[in-house]
């Protein structure tokens, strides 16, 4: 049990589909993150939210649309994705951002395959 | 650009062998450094972290890492590995006061029983 729960764990979608990834954290944290993990590449930071406000959009294409309705929930809405978007999408949370010693805690990830 | 380098992509060891995984970062200034582990089929878990104080940091499961500022390094060590240490290990860094955690590409460790 990580304290950060992601659903679905596996998703296969066509390039014209619209789907969403969901993340929920039970750790009382205020910051939430989306990362993309592809084979042989470093984890790529996509989005950061702090107290529900987006503080980072790391040049992510608009076909990925995040939503953070409250500090415990984070969504990643997916629309007209490309096959190269197939990857493991990781949600993470931390107490806050910018604090020394701050540790981020990861969920188990959502495996996305775009066909 | 800020980056974290892990030079060993795949490491194979026998049980009881000693382990050292390299990690170098390219930041200037004060950094916080982390090692995460990902066991097969599981989530990324924190092994240890450094943000101030003693540069030799001890983590869970007998792991330790040493921060050497002059070498921009934060190598992970374990004196005697076990089969259960088979996993992928990620080094990460974040500049103090910021939130952009930068990860290395990971090192896959396989320990032979």
Order of helices and strands of chain B: EEEEEEEEEEEE
Structural class of chain B, by secondary structure, is mainly beta
Q: State the total count of DSSP E strands of chain B.
A: 12
Radius of gyration of chain A: 13 Å
Verbal overview:
The complex is a heterodimer of chains A (115) and B (113). With 115 residues, chain A is mostly beta strands. Chain A has no helices and eleven strands. Chain A has strands at 4-7, 10-13, 18-25, 31-37, 44-50, 53-57, 64-70, 73-79, 87-94, 105-106, 110-114. In chain A, the strands form two sheets. In chain A, strands 2, 4, 5, 6, 9, 10 and 11 form a seven-stranded mixed sheet that branches. Chain B has no helices and twelve strands. The mean pLDDT of chain B is 93. Chain B is mainly β and 113 residues long. In chain B, strands 2, 5, 6, 10, 11 and 12 form a six-stranded mixed sheet that branches. In chain B, strands 3-9-8-7 form a four-stranded antiparallel sheet, with no helix packed on it. Chain B has a two-stranded antiparallel sheet with strand order 1-4.
């Amino acid at each position: 049990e990580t304290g950060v729960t992601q659903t679905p764990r596996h998703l296969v979608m066509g390039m014209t589909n619209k789907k969403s990834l969901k993340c929920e954290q039970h750790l009382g944290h205020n910051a939430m993150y989306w990362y993309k993990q592809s084979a042989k590449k470093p984890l790529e930071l996509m989005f950061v939210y702090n107290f529900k406000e987006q503080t980072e959009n790391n040049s992510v294409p608009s076909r990925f649309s995040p939503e953070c309705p409250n500090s415990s929930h984070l969504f990643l809405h997916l629309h007209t994705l490309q096959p190269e978007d197939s990857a493991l999408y990781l949600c993470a949370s931390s107490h806050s951002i910018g604090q020394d010693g701050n540790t981020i805690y990861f969920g188990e990830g959502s495996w996305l395959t775009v066909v | 650009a800020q980056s974290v380098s892990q030079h060993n992509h795949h490491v194979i060891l026998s049980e009881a062998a000693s382990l050292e995984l390299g990690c170098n970062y390219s930041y200037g200034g004060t950094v916080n450094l982390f090692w995460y582990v990902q066991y097969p089929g599981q989530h990324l878990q924190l092994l240890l972290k450094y943000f101030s104080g003693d540069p030799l940091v001890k983590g869970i499961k007998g792991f330790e890492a040493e921060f050497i500022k002059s070498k921009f390094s934060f190598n992970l060590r374990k004196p005697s590995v076990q089969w259960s240490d088979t996993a992928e290990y990620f080094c990460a860094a974040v500049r103090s006061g910021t939130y952009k955690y930068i990860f290395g590409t990971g090192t896959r460790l396989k320990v032979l029983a």
